[in-house]
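Revision sheet: structure tokens.
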Amino acid sequence: QYLPEWGGEEVASNPRLELIVGDAHAYLTNCQEKFDAIIMDISDPIEAGPGILLYTQEFYQHAQSLLNDNGVFVTQAGVADGVVNIDGIERGSEKDFSSFAAIQNTLKTVFNCVVPYSVNIPSFGSDWGFIMAFNVSVGSANAQDSIENYVGMSPDVLDDAIGSHITDIDDIESNKSAEQCKKGCDVLRSYDGLSHRRMFALPKPLRETIKRDVRIMTVANPVFMY
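Predicted:
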């Protein structure tokens, strides 16, 4: 109703959508379902905020148990700006207010494939971090090879996939033929094959910051963004 540019009523009335308003931690703790993907676009891990338990090792362990084979977990992970430094605060120390590296470290204790990436969010005034995590089963491809195959995917291959699977929501219920509907990069405003490569190419200062940070977020030892 309030976001027609995101699909509006076509999305709201789609039978595949189930909207649940409530406590995400409580819902997933009691959930009996399995998912192909869990995507967490949630409140930052701030001390007085409602989302801190959704960034802990204990929660990630439970979330992993809710994924189907080859399932993927994604979470927002705070500011991803490697040049932000506050005088007197060592990056990765207890006083460090950033959480991008700590969330990545924590996910690595649960998943064997953890992939950080960032995108520029104009309204935030900075690059923002996200982290994708999944498990490669024993005996299959090496975990690092799986990460590199995804991150280094050819832009042309990605553009072909976008063209095959993405169709303008406004065209779905129209009388247009599949060939007439807008597809792929004509529909998406911000993502294509080259944008994909850029998302995973983290700046060197940020990569160096991540290397120095060894914090792991638990219920007993949380890391607060503020």
